[in-house]
Amino acid sequence: MSEIIDGKAVASEIRADLRDAIETLTDAGTRPGLATVLMGDDPASETYVSMKQRDCEEVGIEGIHVDVDGDAPAEELYDTIDDLNDDPEVHGYIVQAPVPDHVDYQEVIRRVDPGKDVDGFHPENVGRLVAGDARFRPCTPHGVQKLLEAYDVETEGADVTIVGRSNIVGKPLANLLIQKADDGNATVTVCHSRTENLAEKTRTADVVVAAVGVPELIDGDMIGEGAVVIDVGVNRVAADTETGYELVGDVAFESAKEKASAITPVPGGVGPMTRAMLLYNTVVAASEQTGVDVELP
Ligand code: NDP
User: Fold this and answer.
1) Which CATH class is domain 28-114?
2) What is the 161 CA–ligand 1 centroid distance (Å)?
3) Is 90 helix (H, G, I), strand (E, B) or coil?
4) Closest among 25, 292, 278, 290 to 138, alpha carbons compared
5) pLDDT tens, 131-178?
């Protein structure tokens, strides 16, 4: 039987610790500010943004939201970004993805002030992360690291297989886990859609991270006895529920939990951690911009 990794509980502890840091900043005269920008009306994005705003309110961060019409020219989004770069009350902000097709997402990423780039996607921040001098760790990979730490999963010397090589999850996580650091020092294999014999790569791993976007791709047969399984995937599949869908991960939870020593559920695993680490990065940004030192969880 495997231990269920409780992302909600770990995220809640991180938020509680962040509250102290936010209080320190606020007492010193700066309440940290996080802005969310949403272009268009994608329902999943609307949900994500409103959850992020709720998180801000809970911990004492000033939450600011900017809506941009989905049919507006791309320049309207770029102007919004320029305004946020210049706004001293906004210490960090995110542009919720996906953006409409007529917007160049790479331009969006490049345009964000790297000091306010709490997603950690700007090339300067990606470079710093790879060089072992991260300013903002991207939220999902950082959340995965914090979950491993909370459950005393040693990464040093561990064989970690990551399925997925996106710029927001797979690649940054691989880079973080190979760093010469206490929460790194792993030997990492990164798999993707062209990987051959995927099951061989996952079955031999001490830690398997699935970040694919394919419902239940990784089943129990692909997991080695006693491995730790981290499921990043969030997939909406049709179901006989009030909403007409349910959320499932990239891992077939029931069969994988028979093999794993510990496993994250979906929902309630990585998702809450991603949100908590966005607040964390906002505190880092506010601390860096004000020069007020804070203790981070
Ligand atoms: P992307 O679509 O950007 O990347 C998916 C990756 O999976 C790609 O590298 C792709 O390979 C690989 N892949 C696709 N099919 C297969 C396959 N059959 N076998 C092996 N590899 C495959 O996704 P994201 O990284 O953005 O997201 C992944 C999942 O995580 C999604 O379900 C997303 O919703 C979820 N997510 C959850 C978050 C959270 O907070 N819980 C945050 C971010 C994402 P290739 O590169 O060759 O195309």
Assistant:
1) alpha beta
2) 14
3) coil
4) 278
5) 999 999 999 999 999 999 999 999 999 999 999 999 999 999 999 999
Q: Would 28-114 and 139-272 be classified into the same CATH topology?
A: yes
Nearest CA to ligand 1 atom 31: 213
pLDDT at 1 over 90: no
Q: Is 227 left (phi over 0), alpha (psi -120 to 50) or beta?
A: beta
Q: Which fold has domain 139-272?
A: Rossmann fold (3.40.50)
128 CB contacts (<8 Å, ≥6 apart)? 134, 135
Q: In what order do the strands lie in the sheet with 62-68?
A: 62-68, 33-39, 92-95
Domain ranges of the chain: 28-114, 139-272
- Point out the residues that are catalytic: 52, 96, 119
Does position 273 have pLDDT exceeding 90, yes or no?
A: yes
Neighbours of 72 (CB within 10 A): 16
pLDDT tens string 98-140: 999 999 999 999 999 999 999 999 999 999 999 999 999 999 9
Please give the angle made by the CA atoms of 42, 45 and 47, to the nearest 5 degrees. Answer: 110
207 close to 144: Cβ distance less than 8 angstroms? no
Helix (H) or strand (E) holding 224: none
| Phi and psi at residue 106, to the nearest 5° | -65, -35
Give this prediction's pTM: 0.98
- The preferred substitution site among 212, 234, 250 for testing ligand 1, maximizing ligand atoms within 8 Å of CB, is 212
DSSP 109-166: HHHS-GGGBTT--SHHHHHHHHTT--SS--HHHHHHHHHHHHTT---TT-EEEEE---
Looking at the DSSP bridge assignments, the partners of residue 94 are 36
